[in-house]
Write a structure and sequence with these properties.
CATH superfamily of the largest domain: Pseudouridine synthase
Helix content: 10-25%
Strand content: 25-35%
Number of strands: 14
CATH architecture of the largest domain: 2-Layer Sandwich
Structural class: alpha+beta
Number of helices: 5
Oligomer: single chain
CATH topology of the largest domain: Pseudouridine synthase
CATH class of the largest domain: Alpha Beta
Radius of gyration: 23 Å
């Protein structure tokens, strides 16, 4: 009989290793079937197919990842197909990424957006598998400062900038001070604790300004820095929000 078997079983047999180590090799991206990398332990292989380890194969600790992505304006920011998450592809990885992480399918297991952003806005998003990062940016969001650049039209009246810096109440959230300054004649810079969606547009409208575009450039201590629109990188081990 030429019945197919699970790839994990085949690797365990050929390497004389445990099924668990076989699965780790496969999910680590070190196993090829007929010369093509396969990362699914349940993949079915026929007896005639060639199965082997790729050069440099090693058993590695499975480490959760956090991804920083520059979302272009107009894309939804969520965990569904058709959203900014679709940009997390090998070809969009920033050329100066220094993480040393290999792009593997397992990085999408439980990968979750933890920094909502309006569809019309662009800027930094964070997707993570790491519980401490998710807790910091969700449960402790009110303590995390974010920085935005808002392109606006209109003029501020005398005293409006100082009024904005004192903060505004919004949808049941009490007013808290924020840093607001002119970057140039058409761009305002905001630094404030994680705002609710729509808050900055509301702030602009109360001051007689029209929001033309909004870009988030920093979350906590991590700036978007050199990420071009559509690019992403891995959070480095020493980086903290």
């Amino acid at each position: 009989m030429n019945e197919s078997v699970r790839l994990a079983k085949r690797v365990a047999t050929e390497l004389s290793c445990s099924r668990g180590d076989a699965e780790r090799h496969i999910e680590g991206g070190w196993v090829a079937v007929d010369g093509q990398r396969v990362e699914e332990p349940g993949y079915r292989v026929a007896p005639a197919q060639t199965v082997g380890l790729l050069p440099g194969a090693r058993l590695e600790e499975v480490r959760p990842v956090t991804v920083l992505l520059h979302k272009p304006a107009g894309l939804y920011a969520n965990d569904e197909p058709g959203s900014a998450r679709d940009l997390i592809l090998p070809e969009n990885l920033a050329g100066d990424d220094r993480s040393g992480q290999r792009y593997l399918k397992r990085m999408f297991n439980g990968l979750k957006l933890v920094t909502p952003l309006e569809r019309a806005a662009s800027g930094l998003l964070v997707y993570t598998q790491e519980y401490p990062v998710a807790r910091k940016l969700q449960e402790e969001a009110r303590l995390v400062e974010q920085e935005y650049v808002a392109q606006v039209s209109g003029q501020l009246r005398e005293g409006d900038l100082a009024r904005l810096q004192r903060g505004l109440a919004y949808q049941g959230r009490a007013a808290t001070p924020m840093k607001v300054s002119w970057q140039n004649e058409t761009h305002l810079r905001f630094a404030l604790k994680t705002p609710d969606p729509g808050f900055i547009e509301y702030v602009c409208e109360t001051a007689g300004l029209r929001l033309q575009a909004l870009r988030r450039i920093r979350i906590g201590r991590l700036p978007m820095a050199g990420l071009a629109a559509g690019q992403w990188r891995y959070r480095l081990a020493y980086e903290r929000f």
